[in-house]
Amino acid sequence: xxxxxxxxxxxxxxxxxxxxxxxxxxxxxxxxxxxxxxxxxxxxxxxxxxxxxxxxxxxxxxxxxxxxxxxxxxxxxxxxxxxxxxxxxxxxxxxxxxxxxxxxxxxxxxxxxxxxxxxxxxxxxxxxxxxxxxxxxxxxxxxxxxxxxxxxxxxxxxxxxxxxxxxxxxxxxxxxxxxxxxxxxxxxxxxxxxxxxxxxxxxxxxxxxxxxxxxxxxxxxxxxxxxxxxxxxxxxxxxxxxxxxxxxxxxxxxx
Amino acid sequence: xxxxxxxxxxxxxxxxxxxxxxxxxxxxxxxxxxxxxxxxxxxxxxxxxxxxxxxxxxxxxxxxxxxxxxxxxxxxxxxxxxxxxxxxxxxxxxxxxxxxxxxxxxxxxxxxxxxxxxxxxxxxxxxxxxxxxxxxxxxxxxxxxxxxxxxxxxxxxxxxxxxxxxxxxxxxxxxxxxxxxxxxxxxxxxxxxxxxxxxxxxxxxxxxxxxxxxxxxxxxxx
Amino acid sequence: xxxxxxxxxxxxxxxxxxxxxxxxxxxxxxxxxxxxxxxxxxxxxxxxxxxxxxxxxxxxxxxxxxxxxxxxxxxxxxxxxxxxxxxxxxxxxxxxxxxxxxxxxxxxxxxxxxxxxxxxxxxxxxxxxxxxxxxxxxxxxxxxxxxxxxxxxxxxxxxxxxxxxxxxxxxxxxxxxxxxxxxxxxxxxxxxxxxxxxxxxxxxxxxxxxxxxxxxxxxxxxxxxxxxxxxxxxxxxxxxxxxxxx
Lengths: 255, 222, 246
Prior knowledge:
The structure holds three protein chains of three kinds. By secondary structure, chain A is α/β, with parallel strands linked by helices. Chain A has helices at about 50-55, 80-85, 105-115, 120-130, 150-160, 180-195, 205-210, 230, 240-250, and strands at about 10-20, 20-30, 35-40, 65-70, 70, 90, 165-170, 195-200, 215-220, 220-225. Chain A has a domain at about 10-95 and about 165-250: Rossmann fold, CATH 3.40.50.300. In chain A, α3 packs across α4 (about 120-130), α3 runs parallel beside α5 (about 150-160) and α4 (about 120-130) packs across α5 (about 150-160). Chain B is mainly α. Chain B has a domain at about 20-170: MetI-like fold, CATH 1.10.3720.10. In chain B, α1 packs antiparallel against α6 (about 130-160) and α4 (about 90-115) packs across α6 (about 130-160). Chain C is α/β, with parallel strands linked by helices. Chain C folds into two domains: about 20-110 and about 210-245, 3-Layer(aba) Sandwich (D-Maltodextrin-Binding Protein, domain 2), CATH 3.40.190.10; about 110-205, 3-Layer(aba) Sandwich (D-Maltodextrin-Binding Protein, domain 2), CATH 3.40.190. The longest helix of chain C is centred in the N-terminal third of the chain and has 21 residues, at about 1-20. The interface between B and C is large, with 36 and 41 residues.
């Protein structure tokens, strides 16, 4: 699937980050190819979330840089940074919906304010995105009136509306009640099948096995193991990844 | 008793005109305070070091000096030095507004800080500039949360406005004093003034509460 | 919603500022509206009193526009110097200290200072000096300054309490909080007419009232001097005295 001859869609080059005197990321590099789905696995505090947030400069890395479509991003240039972020969708663990806006406006506000669409255009686009995540009839509801799964689907619709080239997903199902996880995973699966380029931090092993093109195991700010899930998660393989995953399966009672 | 009633009936229209002056000054000060307080709060939360220090200095200055002193300093000092020939009411409104700006900034700052940091990140992740994210995402929520604090600020400004009489602004207090000097009915007249302030406080609180209800977000519990 | 309110308010501000600016150029006479019968606010809410009527007559005679604006007495000279008002004709006593900052017109009225006490009081003016009592005075007045200076010099025993206006001091005499209040004779007469208080004797020196202007406004000063000269020669002067001061 991944032909290394192709230029990567997104290149992460030597990202390091220290917070409060602790080195969270130690010179991380990775390439994301078009249509690829990478999964980040690892213990909490291993730097997954920091890495994802560094990838669109929500956290400014101390060293290293990002390239999108071969273009070096200069985070000091505010305009360029905003343009770059429009092309990189981000999904957060706790949704981060805008509490004062209904679902429809959550999706349409950036279309209007950032893309400069008319109210009507933005509304139509927002409706079609909500439809795509199965919430066409919930547009008038406010975040506080939605379930966790619905909130996360709205946040996915919000990101998709900007036509991102890449999606960064930071544990999108971790804050959900177990019975709401599958509706969100179904939406993400749909995206993957439609060829969206994604990198996702998750503990959902079944999902990883079936959809990930590559698994990156992160610990103490480094990528320790990487490879296809078939290899890393094969029964009896002596990988750290499998070791870690069997622990979460024990704790979570098998997901 | 009869004489007292006559005095009160006579004085009422005159003192009520003073209430109009008070209302204009208080509403003016509230809005001026809003326009000063919001940028101050944003500067204090999101600004760089220099901006934070400057905003902090402003707040420190206006919170540290009694209104009465500020009124004299600005009316006879600063405004005159600047060649601004402002009427007493306008000058008092500006001083009350600038002071209120310092206090309102603390209300807004608290509201902004009580919002989750995640929403700002989400807005930035969508490609919004910082200013746009603050304007369209943070402030609409922070301002809603500030309405209860704002009600409090309203009643404080209303009462502080009574000090404007020292500049010769003919608001409720000054007019009450004038009538009392002519008629020697101090107690009934000041009671009337007290009732007027009470009613103005009450009306303002009701209006702000209905504003709070009107802009309330469904299901939103903070 | 907020925008609409802000817009309405902006209009309101423009209107008030506009009317303030639109007012034609008139001299502003700063008055202490808590000083009946020389200056006060009448029942219809207009400035009135001996000084107000006198200045109105002079303005008509000398051909200038005038407006009377109540100003807090304590801040009345700063108001004049800051050009918030153009002159002060409001029972202001001519004193050396004030004359360092402003120029005074010729004297147009003389008053003595008196003490008032409750109607049933047997206090005498000459008895107050060595008693442990409290005397009320209006802050910022020449008589209050005289009283404080002399008390210091002579070692008088009483305490001075300062009020924002003479009527407030009178009120506290009635409340029994102070034994007596010192003020100019005319307001004391006014109080005597309206309240159960009486004049118990005089103190201090005869005070001379004059109008105050900024040092540089010599032309206005001449106009006022000339005006008073004409007024005092006119039968209207006696009418005014009858109306307000007798």
